[in-house]
Design goal:
The complex is a heterodimer of chains A (about 400) and B (about 190).
Chain A (H helix, E strand, L loop, with lengths): L7 H12 L8 H16 L5 H14 L5 H23 L6 H24 L3 H25 L6 H18 L3 H22 L5 H15 L5 H20 L7 H19 L6 H27 L5 H24 L3 H21 L4 H27 L9
Helix pairs in contact in A: 2-3, 4-6, 5-6, 6-7, 6-8, 7-8, 8-9, 8-10, 9-10, 10-12, 11-12, 12-13, 12-14, 13-14
Chain B lengths: L8 H32 L1 E10 L2 E2 L3 E8 L3 E3 L14 E9 L2 E8 L11 E11 L6 E5 L4 E3 L5 H7 L5 E7 L5 E8 L2 E5 L4
Antiparallel strand pairs in B: 1-3, 1-10, 2-3, 3-9, 4-8, 5-6, 5-7, 7-8, 10-11, 11-12
Amino acid sequence: MRRGGASVLLRAKRAFEVWSPGKENRLAGYVDKAMRDVARWSEQGLITDEAAAAIRADLASRRSGYGLPHIFALLGAILLVLSVLTFVAANWDEIPRLARVAMLAGLLIASYAAAVRLFLTGHDIFGQTAVLVGSGVYGGSIMLVSQMYHIYGNPADAVLAWALGTTLAAAAFRAPAVWVMAFAIFCLWSAGTTAESNEVHWIFPLVVAAMAALAWWIHFTGARHLVALALTAWVVSLPIVHGASFFPYQTLTIGLCVGAIGAAAMLLAGDGEGFVERNAPIAMLYGYVIAFCGLFNMQFFEHDVPLEKFVMLAAATLVLSLAVLAVGRLRGRGMALSVAYLGFSIELVGIYFKTFGTLLNTSIFFFTSGVMVIALAWFGMRLRKRGVLAGDFS
Amino acid sequence: MTRAAPLPRWWILVAGLLVATVQLAVPGSIIAGRIALLSAGHEITLKTVPVDPRDLFRGDYVILNFAISRVELADVPHPDTIDELDEIFVIISPQDDDWAVSSLSEAMPDTMPPGAQVLRADVDYLSGEGANRTARLRYGVESYFVPEGTGRDLEKLVRDKALSVIVAVGPGGRAAIKGLVIDGERIYDEPLL
């Protein structure tokens, strides 16, 4: 890169490239598997050497920046953070309080000095590791201070201050690993607040939305599952915290709406990598999980469920799982498939143990649904023979 | 994980300074506030009984329970609208060799009986019905953090002795623990830092 001669326009363009969303990386597993496939196709003469090289270059550009040393450094950093936190909790009076405060302040400054140095020398991921340690020490110092002065206060407030400071660090260094830490602390904060007040924590979805926006801004695509998982846990906990009075079948309704929108978007969208293509499968997957939890609660945890209602709910759960399986298979989404299989299996085990009044009734239910699912399989084969599904339903 | 262009060099320096400053300033400002409260506040001494749990991040502590933590609402003037999680001002007066609640108020009272003190508290919960309700108040001085493993010792020590806590009270009614007294003897003074 030329120094000094860059025009204002070039500088502006560079600044834009730094802050604007760009390509994200796939998991290392996918890239490695694709590399092996390309090698095989190249050996079998299915693709030319030039094509193979071009595909390899494209794959390499999408390889995650995280190597084994990076992963070990991050895990080591987490262990260091836990060491600092437990050291504070031990409240060891051999070291005077002032010395403990000075130790943590020194450690914090050293962490960020190391982070700056590592980022400047291009070791971004090790730099993130140092920021992670710094933010952990920051949390430890908040806890130390509130311990020193016996501040009863609201323990959740201390955790919130920790989460906000960590979020600032994640944003400033655009560090996904630190984002994960901040997100985890926000979840801890929400759980603590809910446990303390025994009321629904309505702010939490807004916090998750803000964190999702931050993740998009720092190009951290891996955040999508964490965001969806946190929202799923929040929705599923709604009836537990709030009672059933919010609105009837709240978990089921929310799950069905989100899942249906996701499934429809998956079926309508193409194979590209736009916003819809990337997020619709997540909406379907977690919508299904939420709806499944709602149905499962209504079948197995509510008291005195009438037999007809139980049979209906069980059938609905199986149909829902099959629908998710079908969409997941049609659009080649392995994760949706696995989760739908899991849901289907859990439901079967649940029915088997609860039984529909008598074992004979249960047997009739299994027989009827078995015949219907096999009929579906036969119907699918017919469609395939006529070429309607063109191999998708294979 | 991102394949975006690297951060500009000037920004890395700014980010390091900014984050370190903010993350030092947050605990620092808590320390400053506490020092101000402990050195400028009034002192009152409250009798207490400790029990011994553990906090996730701050380790072992003893929960302190005071006579003024529990108020029979029928016995003292109080706002009618009193509810759980409210912040409330508690006027306390010396009684025997401890303190007792003489009234509850929504705002900082303008005048006070001689010898009385005002403390800010949160209404933790209300129990009972109508006029016979009991309010559980929290003053923010209910936990005393101790070195790991020494909570039980403190509990044992006070089983047959009287434990009191010296509390610093700031002008706004905020309270902070300043020291411990066992059998009238000031055994522990909290250092400012």
